[in-house]
Amino acid sequence: MTSGLRILVTGTNGQLGQELAGLAKHYADIEWHFLDRSTLDLSETTRIAPTIAAIAPQVIVNAAAYTAVDKAESEGEIADAINHIAVREIANTAKALDACLIQVSTDYVFDGTHHRPYLPSDTPSPESVYGATKLAGEKAFIGSGAKGIVLRTSWVYSALGKNFVGTMLRLGREKDALGVVADQVGSPTWAKDLARAIIRISLSEKLQNTKGEIYHYSNTGVCSWFDLATCIMDESGLDCSVNPIASEAYPTPAKRPHYSVLNCQSTLDDFSVETPHWLHSLRLALPEFATEKP
């Protein structure tokens, strides 16, 4: 039952937040509240509780995050403020309002040493500041006793934000050849699919009876960044060759997990969400990207 349900979404200007806003028009019987940085800056933690309390939502989707993975290595304080301290404040406010929180998290809480999809119950071991601050946020939420779930996802992209797919399309138009890392493996996730799943979870009775459990959501299938880049060029008809390289050949400030595939079975079992194959979703998403300069 959706009539009268009030859902608050943070991070409206991010790619997930924008996809949620785009889908919201199909759920007119829900009272939606979308907050961007101008209406709720999560780095200003004292504003969080009164802003949320004034709306009094039944469900909070925290789609806001500090996601600049490499910059986080030198901006740990602001990354922690947004990914950890702000989550603690949101969770405490959710508990006070008896609201449910869906806290979006990341595959980067894992170190990537597994060779089978990570279960929600697997022990996290982040190797980047970004991953560590997101894990701290998860723990703060779970420790608050608020209702709701942590929802980890991976390799998110959308035409509505900056991401790997958009970068590859741009470089594919500008260059004849690219070297792309081939030894990092995961599951690309279209933000629109993730948004659909979050809405379904928001409307479920199961969410109302869940407290601080961890779930995973990604598109199905597995590939490397090299595989993904190759498919982007092929599907877009771009005449740019993609060459596989090792991570060591493309050093970055933050260490990425070599394997971060997520096991999403419990999410399918408990919430009956759809998890299309990543290539199917990529083919649907690519027309939404601007492939030609104006």
Poorly predicted regions: none
Number of H/I helices: 10
The largest pleated sheet is described as: 6 strands, parallel
* H-E order: EHEHEHEHEEHEEEHHEEHEHH
Arithmetic mean pLDDT: 95
Widest beta sheet: strand line-up: 2-1-3-4-5-10
The coarse silhouette is globular
- Percentage of residues in strands: 15-25%
Cα-atom radius of gyration: 19 Å
Head-to-tail CA distance between termini: 44 Å
Helix content, binned percent: 25-40%
Structural class: alpha/beta
Number of strands: 12
Keywords:
294 residues; alpha/beta; six-stranded parallel sheet; two-stranded parallel ribbon
Short description:
With 294 residues, the protein is of the alpha/beta class. The protein has 10 helices and 12 strands.
Structure overview:
- There is one protein chain.
- The protein is α/β, with parallel strands linked by helices and 294 residues long.
- Helix content is 37%, strand content 18%.
- It has ten helices and twelve strands.
- The chain has helices at residues 15-24, 48-55, 76-97, 129-144, 164-174, 191-202, 205-208, 225-236, 265-271, 278-285; strands at residues 6-10, 31-35, 59-62, 100-106, 147-153, 156-157, 177-181, 185-186, 189-190, 211-216, 223-224, 241-245.
- Strands 2-1-3-4-5-10 form a six-stranded parallel β-sheet, sandwiched between helices. A two-stranded parallel sheet has the order 6-9.
- α5 (164-174) packs across α8 (225-236).
